Amino acid sequence: MRKKKNENFYAELINSKNIIDITSLEKRISNITKHGKQLIENEITAINKLLENRYEKYGIIDEIENVEAFKRGYYDLGKIGLTLNEIRTRIIRLGYEKETPLGIRIQQDWNYIAHLLNDLLYLENINLHNYLALLNEHLEKCKNSDLHSIYSEKQLEGIYNYLCRKKLFCDNTKFRDFLKVFKSYGFENFDKIKVNTSQRGNKALLRVAVEVLTKNFPVSLVNRYFADENGNHLNIGCHNRSTAYDDYRKEMLQILS
User: Fold this and answer.
1) Do residues 131 and 144 lie in contact, with contact meaning Cβ atoms separated by under 8 Å?
2) Contacts of 218-221 spanning 24+ positions with Cβ under 8 A
3) Which residue has the higher pLDDT, 215 or 116?
4) Against a cut of 0.85, is the pTM above it?
5) Is it the case that residue 60 has pLDDT exceeding 60?
6) Least trusted range by pLDDT, from 198-202, 219-223, 253-257
7) What is the gyration radius of the CA atoms in the chain, in angstroms?
């Protein structure tokens, strides 16, 4: 079933005569990221393979073999299945905005068959390119935003309940989101977990919890996934000073043992 859905989605990317709204592509990526970084990498591989096949549609452009011809603005037509006029006709039929970077490039390449063919291929596959760019952006976020914990769901639930007893969270029904943060990669798809910062020491308690669960303290990520009572940035500072909450640390480690 999933394979069929993927094939239908790829067909839509390829066959759509319009540029697909970025919001729709982001929604697709959001569904993928729920299952971890590996699926993003798999999707990138699939799209790159599609592009590779699509770019051979009119014949392979091999710049290395004909570099001088390429520089001079013409190309070995034996390797290209379209004439310059046919390429121009296809571009006109697809349509493009002249003031965009792509439109400006097309106008500059108008008399150079190899360059213009690349422009045509990009234009024909623009949805694939846009989707691939978004996938790579999300993969980069995953690389830089791993709060992944080695602990089991049961252990993490124990820590979550412990933090709830300490009245750390404003809403004590956010365990699934808490689990996503510590068992998944780079999530942006849920409301931040609100911390009860009106209670003295709770920011430090949160820091200790993150240190225990991840063995480090990635400040930007804590600020990304957690917020104050009003949903505002926690502004937890970046410093190496050890916290004085050793009792809390020992209790949490005991829960995880």
Assistant:
1) no
2) 218/145, 218/147, 220/145, 221/145, 221/147
3) 116
4) no
5) no
6) 219-223
7) 26
Burial label, 226 (beta-carbon count in 10 A; 0-12, 13-18, 19+): buried
Beta carbons within 10 angstroms of residue 76's beta carbon: 15
What is the total residue count of the chain?
257
Assign 3-class secondary structure to the chain: CHHHHHHHHHHHHHHCCCCCCHHHHHHHHHHHHCCCHHHHHHHHHHHHHHHHHHCCCCCCCCCCCCHHHHHHCCCCHHHCCCCHHHHHHHHHHHCCCCCCHHHHHHHHCCCCHHHHHHHHHHHHCHHHHHHHHHHHHHHHHHHHCCCCCCCCHHHHHHHHHHHHHCCCECCCCCHHHHHHHHHCCCCCCCCCEEECCCCCCHHHHHHHHHHHHHCCCCHHHHHHHEECCCCCECCCCCCCCCCCCHHHHHHHHHHHC
Q: Are 20 and 127 in contact (CB under 8 A)?
A: yes
For tokens 């209670």, what's the residue? 199
Pairing between β-strand 193-194 and β-strand 226-227 as defined by DSSP bridges: parallel
Amino acid identity, position 88: R
Q: In this model, does residue 35 exceed pLDDT 60?
A: no
Tell me the one-letter amino acid at 207. Answer: R
